[in-house]
Backbone:
């Protein structure tokens, strides 16, 4: 079953709207509600946000037995896959704690005011929180094997935490393997990400005295060694990560609120898809295939020309939106993606594709930043301007 079958574009919009209700959250110094909303439902084969750079602190130097290594590795994998911008926000918005409880070492991942993952270093009793609505939607769609879930995961009916009360469910697994089986499923991963971004939006981190950056470094390196082989990796040098798919938008399912214009949202999604399809078809006529994503970076469109030059495009609809705001957002995104890809050794030519003519000054702004501004109806450039 395709990953996308249990959620639609309105789910992304609703998450973005929910996160935007917390405009003073410290999280917005590192990302945006729109970026996080898309990341929540992103393909789990992609790196978690912030995963492109490893912690600069050396791991704690200690001998660990096999069970302890597996526990630290699970914590590291969980952090890399479910905590947004983990390296940048470590010790500021969240932290990994280690403490002794009745003579045993307990690892705890705390985001805002909530421990979202905790387990004993000996691998016993893995606990984590998931967003209830996202998990229920996955079960309703038949996207999770219910019998296997019941056999591997126990859901706690009592919830001692006030944070996000009623919006989350506590889960317990007996082994690291069971926890990894659950969290590797795209639907469960999205439910874990959703709890975490909500916690960070609410805020409340107040345990700096317990923070030690070496713990993240240990978990991070352990997760790389033990679990990276379990995740599909982008093919080095590939022109894109996967084929482009049109978004699925059901207007009837969109929430009615004063702050959310359903017609404008649907029109924007349709225009974004039309623009994407125009560029895909235009290049297909010359024998060039276009897809989405590149080396794990969530670009809208990516391709290589006949000479092997790599392009990426950020698509921005101007339907029902402020052109200036959309252009600022689009330019910032494509510059960020270019930078992230450069860190991976991928040189790209960035393009910003919009749906309507704009002030000529924006062509100058884009050109000054090494970006080609392409407006619907323009002749497609063979080289960057």
Residues:
């Amino acid at each position: 079953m395709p990953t996308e079958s249990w959620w639609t574009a309105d789910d992304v919009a609703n998450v973005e709207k929910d996160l935007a209700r917390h405009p003073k959250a410290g999280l917005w110094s590192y990302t945006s509600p729109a970026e996080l909303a898309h990341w929540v439902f992103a393909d789990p084969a992609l790196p978690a946000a912030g995963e492109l750079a490893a912690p600069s602190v050396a791991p704690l130097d200690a001998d660990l037995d096999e069970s302890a290594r597996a526990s630290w590795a699970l914590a590291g994998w969980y952090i890399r896959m479910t905590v947004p911008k983990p390296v940048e926000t470590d010790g500021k918005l969240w932290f990994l704690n280690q403490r002794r409880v009745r003579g045993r070492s307990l690892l705890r991942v705390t985001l805002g005011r909530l421990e979202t993952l905790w387990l004993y270093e000996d691998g016993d009793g893995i606990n984590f929180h998931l967003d209830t609505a996202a998990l229920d939607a996955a079960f309703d769609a038949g996207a999770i094997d219910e019998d296997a879930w019941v056999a591997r995961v126990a859901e706690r009916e009592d919830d001692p935490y006030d944070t996000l009360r009623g919006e989350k469910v506590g889960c317990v697994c007996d082994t690291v393997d069971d926890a990894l089986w659950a969290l590797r499923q795209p639907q469960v991963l999205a439910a874990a990400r959703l709890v975490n971004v909500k916690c960070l939006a609410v805020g409340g981190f107040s345990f700096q005295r317990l923070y030690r950056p070496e713990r993240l470094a240990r978990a991070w390196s352990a997760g790389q060694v033990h679990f990276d082989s379990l995740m599909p990796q982008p093919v080095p040098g590939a022109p894109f990560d996967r084929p482009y798919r049109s978004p699925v938008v059901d207007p009837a399912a969109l929430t009615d609120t004063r702050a959310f214009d359903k017609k404008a949202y649907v029109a924007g999604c349709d225009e974004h898809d039309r623009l994407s399809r125009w560029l895909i078809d235009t290049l297909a006529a010359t024998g060039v295939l276009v897809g989405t994503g590149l080396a794990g970076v969530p670009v809208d469109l990516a391709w290589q020309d006949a000479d092997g030059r790599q392009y990426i495009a950020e698509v921005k609809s101007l339907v029902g939106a402020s052109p200036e705001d959309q252009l600022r957002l689009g330019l910032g995104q494509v510059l960020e993606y270019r930078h992230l890809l450069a860190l991976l050794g991928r040189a790209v030519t960035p393009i910003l594709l919009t749906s309507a003519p704009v002030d000529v000054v924006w062509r100058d702004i884009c050109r000054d930043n090494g970006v080609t501004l392409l407006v619907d109806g323009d002749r497609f450039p063979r080289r960057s301007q």
